[in-house]
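ok trying again, last paste got cut off:
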Amino acid sequence: MTETVLHFVFTLSGAGCLVQALRKAGRDDQVIAFSDDLSFGPIDPADASLRAKWVEHELGERDWNRSPTSSERVWDEARFPDHRKVAWLTRRSASEYAGFLDWIWRLGEAPCEVVDLSEVMISYPSEHGPPRPPVLAVSLGMLHPDTIRNNNLWDLAEPLQMTVRDRYLDLWRQLRSENAPLRVVKGDNLVSAPISFFDSLLMSYGTNNWQKVIRIVGTAIAAEMDIFQASDMVLRARIDALAQAGRLEIRGKSALEMFDSEVRLPRLNSDG
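nice, full thing came through this time. structure:
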């Protein structure tokens, strides 16, 4: 009897890339995707309605985290008690790291394997010119399906050892007890952070000239090339909060509408 393999992925983009790679490789493994970004908002208790209220109040998002309807994106341990479980982890993405920790927390004592991409280097063939140096994989969602398939990244799956599992559980237990507004990557760990954590970074990109909010958000996301700390939803909400506090001037309805709004550093005597 063929063993059924379940892959657990903590972004929808990563799940989409993995599904395509598996199908191109002729594999029918099922992929379970988690869309909730647990790098922000309350995590204890694990109450979706409380998180939704927090997101609406702090980030201004009213229709956040609607549940996916795809049958390949539904998690129910009772449905898969005897299947081989493979989780895809990167400690370079706050949201994926948090999603993985929460998954381990909920898994109980069931055995699992992990594909850890945190230090995986990917080589890309160069059609013209000298060979390109290998680069960090960083996140499953950044990899083309052909790259996943050609490198057989699923072969990197290794059983999660109990000592490592206990460290992950202790880390998530601590983060749950702190229940901070944000969780960010620091070295090899995930740590709690205040809602204002990114404010100084965002302010550093402000200038005396008007800039689209999307430009500042994009620059902040790319500030650490090998780490993903926050979603655009968190960053644009903080820009809006900075504008409301008078630390930035805004032109447009709201920084939440980041494609249509602009900000700049305040001017004492502004002629617009």
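cool. The longest helix spans residues 162-178. Helices lie at 12-24, 48-59, 94-107, 145-150, 162-178, 199-204, 213-221, 232-244.
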